[in-house]
């Protein structure tokens, strides 16, 4: 009579830990950094690089003035770094919000941003710096409402172009309501004299409609008109912008202009002379 050898009792393989076994904080971080495609990480990496690069430039450009004002080279840098520490987590949270959230709040955000931009014209709240009236001061807090307007304009344009995605061949459909609403927002910023921000906002509008699928033949005429208007606004007037452009065009030949309107031009020449184009 033969007997089979006793079977060794094998231990069952351990089950992998379920998501519920992981700490909630780790799960939350994984969800924030999770992505369906690699484009998310490409955009995230580019954004973080620009933030770090911007902080380095802030330190380079503000260290001497910070030391003169507070005997500390890092005052301006630390202030901007604090904003980055607050903004980066908010950016990651915003990136995980569902599209329905942004659709629901796009119009409201635009209305709030326009209302904030109006505050720059309220006596006691709006303040002028560098020849532009584009700041608001409430107590110790200073801010530029046009920064909120940039974000709100992106959201509102995306929602509007989504609704009109089947009529982008008709320039009447593209113009309404983008021209009056975006034009009003641009006009408020322009009234404050901030031409640089106006150019950025115009670029946002043109970029949005182009990537939404609007044909170049529809965009050609407004682009030419805006380019001509920008050239006139930048070169005309007696403000610091017009004087600096005039000094640049005339060659900054006068030594009397060195410490005034030719300051940027001359220091730009010095930078190119010592550091080269790159």
Question: How does the overall form come out from the CA principal axes?
Answer: globular
As residue ranges, the low-confidence spans are none
How confident is the prediction overall: mean pLDDT?
83
Query: Measured on Cα atoms, how large is the radius of gyration?
Result: 27 Å
How big a fraction of the residues is strand? 5-15%
Number of helices: 10
Order of helices and strands: HHHHEEEHHHHHH
Cross-sheet strand order for the largest sheet: 1-2-3
State the total count of DSSP E strands.
3
Please characterize this protein's 3D structure.
The protein has 278 residues and is mainly α. Helix content is 67%, strand content 5%. It contains ten helices and three strands; from the N terminus they run ααααβββαααααα. The chain has a three-stranded antiparallel β-sheet with strand order 1-2-3. Strand 1 (126-129) and strand 2 form a beta hairpin.
Outline the secondary-structure elements.
Layout (H helix, E strand, L loop, with lengths): L23 H10 L5 H32 L4 H21 L3 H20 L7 E4 L2 E7 L2 E3 L1 H19 L7 H21 L3 H18 L3 H20 L4 H11 L12 H13 L3
Antiparallel strand pairs: 1-2, 2-3
Helix pairs in contact: 2-3, 4-5, 5-6, 5-7, 6-7, 7-8
Protein traits:
single chain; about 280 residues; mainly alpha; 3-stranded antiparallel β-sheet; 3 strands; globular
In short:
The chain has ten helices and three strands. Helix 2 runs antiparallel to helix 3.
């Amino acid at each position: 009579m033969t007997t089979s050898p006793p079977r060794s009792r094998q231990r069952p393989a351990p089950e992998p830990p379920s998501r519920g076994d992981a700490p909630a904080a780790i799960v939350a971080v994984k969800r924030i950094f999770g992505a369906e495609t690699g484009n998310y990480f490409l955009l995230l990496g580019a954004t973080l690089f620009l933030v770090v690069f911007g902080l380095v430039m802030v330190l380079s450009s503000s260290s001497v003035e910070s030391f003169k004002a507070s005997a500390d080279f890092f005052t301006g840098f630390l202030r901007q770094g604090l904003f980055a520490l607050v903004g980066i987590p908010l950016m990651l949270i915003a990136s995980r919000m569902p599209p329905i959230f942004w659709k629901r709040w796009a119009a409201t955000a635009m209305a709030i941003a326009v209302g904030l931009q109006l505050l720059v014209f309220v006596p006691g709240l709006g303040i002028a710096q560098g020849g532009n009236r584009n700041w608001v001061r409430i107590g110790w807090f200073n801010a530029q409402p046009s920064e909120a307007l940039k974000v709100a304009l992106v959201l509102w344009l995306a929602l509007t172009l989504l609704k009109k995605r089947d009529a982008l061949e008709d320039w009447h459909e593209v113009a309404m309501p983008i021209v009056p609403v975006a034009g009003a927002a641009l006009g408020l910023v322009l009234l404050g004299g901030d031409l640089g921000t106006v150019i950025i906002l115009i670029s946002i509008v043109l970029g949005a409609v182009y990537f939404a699928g609007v044909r170049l033949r529809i965009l050609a005429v407004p682009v030419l008109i805006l380019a001509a208007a920008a050239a006139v606004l930048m070169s005309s007037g007696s403000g610091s912008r017009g004087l600096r452009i005039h000094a640049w065009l005339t060659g900054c030949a006068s030594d009397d202009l060195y410490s005034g309107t030719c300051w940027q031009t001359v220091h730009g020449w010095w930078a190119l002379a010592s550091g080269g184009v790159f």
